[in-house]
Design a protein that fits this description.
With 350 residues, this protein is an alpha/beta fold. It is 47% helix and 15% strand. It starts with a helix and ends in a 19-residue tail after the last helix. Bound molecules: 1-O-phosphono-beta-D-fructopyranose.
Amino acid sequence: MEPGATTLREIYGQPEVWTRCLQALDALDINPLVGDKHPLSHQWIFVGCGTSYYLAQAAAASFTSLTGILAHAIPASEILLFPKLVIPAESSSIFPVLISRSGHTSEVLQVAEVLNRRGISFLAVTCDGNELAQLTPRVLKLPVTEESTVMTSSFTSMLMALQNVAARIASQQEFLDALHTLPAALAVLLPVYGPQVEQFSHRSFDDVAFLAQGALYPIASETSLKVMESSSSYAQFFHTLEFRHGPKSIVSENVLVGALLSESGNAEESAVLLEMKQLGACTLAIANSISPQVRASADLAIELALPVPELARLIVYIVWGQLLGSYMGLRKGLNPDSPRNLSRVVTIAG
Ligand code: F1P
């Protein structure tokens, strides 16, 4: 098989996977998932490793934005190593959500066991199910079969599912309707911007940084992870305006600065990207609406033009980083289907 064929097929297949997930979510009764834990009177803690940790961050931001409930995200290892920092003494007030594509990652399974020992019930969100699905009666299992080592459609599908749950808790019908428009919208964007991202990836970079703020920050983090995993290149991520406070000293013409521009902070965030262009960076802009100034200066501008609430656009923002990582890996002669040093699941012998 051609190098990267599986990963690219899974990235380009996301419109179909999202449609299938939305059908499953339409038929889902969320009451058994929530059970006796009133969703608006608990503090939600989203837990995962790797891509699933960034998903946890995006889910926490989505829950807080949609419902007003306090929510945060934590890597599974923090609960194992420093439980007192994460789980309050009054543990009945928390609603943990454990996220794992495989349901087989050791650290996540160990957290599930800790929670069960302490009598704290939790929700599991997964694609494969595996042992995680056996450790709790509350399981949200999505119809996504992903072969690749790196997570692509599983990330977007599980994030969409958690946004769906949050919108249902908050009775936000407009948001739920917006999610249903995304598969068709992505199907239009992919043939336009996929080849442009491929062309863009032919350049080589000494350093790579992705910038975003708010709910897009975890999407910038995941964009960096995709570039690292799929192309064995080091990539960093920053809150956009933080990039001026030191990191910009890495900027030169062989440095890629990619900005995921929000609508609410567009003016301030665009100014940072324009400044980095003036300092010589190669720039990539992803935004719902690209201003003429950004369009004139960005080396690649991806305009989403999605007529949906800002928060509903998150899963469309990540697709371009997924593609960029894979195409950069191919350009370097690597096989993004078999990333160096990685396996599909991290299991640590106990
Ligand atoms: C999470 C994860 C992936 C990563 C790597 C190992 O897995 O860390 O994000 O790409 O290949 O596993 P999971 O717990 O979601 O299955």
